[in-house]
Write a structure and sequence with these properties.
Structural class: alpha/beta
Radius of gyration: 12 Å
Strand content: 35-45%
Order of helices and strands: EEHEHEHHE
Distance between the termini: 25 Å
Shape: globular
Low-confidence stretches: none
């Protein structure tokens, strides 16, 4: 299960994820991003309550990063050790901005 909390402030979008970002829930995030990224120059994704991310979740992040490279910046905050390790093993820590 994945809970997505979305806050927009002008051209800034903050998305907080809670639960698991996997094959079942990735389309949900993909849809949310697709509907929300128009005109957004700053995308902040809060992973404080995210427990797990699968390759499907990584793919969604990658496509969001590609969009944001064209129109602004994307950063991930409150990334826990488990997910940070996944980012490091997959090389995503070099692609994504993690604070």
């Amino acid at each position: 299960m994945l809970n997505i909390e979305k806050k927009t402030d002008g051209s800034s979008l903050n998305i907080a994820l809670e639960g698991r970002l996997d094959t079942m829930t990735s389309p949900q995030l993909e849809e949310t991003l697709k509907d929300s990224l128009d005109g957004v120059t700053s995308l902040i994704m809060d992973f404080e309550k995210l427990e797990y991310i699968s390759s499907a979740g990584l793919r969604v992040l990658l496509s969001a990063q590609k969009i944001m490279n064209k129109q602004g910046e994307m950063k991930l905050i409150h990334v826990n050790e488990v997910i940070n390790e996944i980012f490091e093993v997959t090389g995503f820590s070099d692609i994504l901005t993690i604070e």
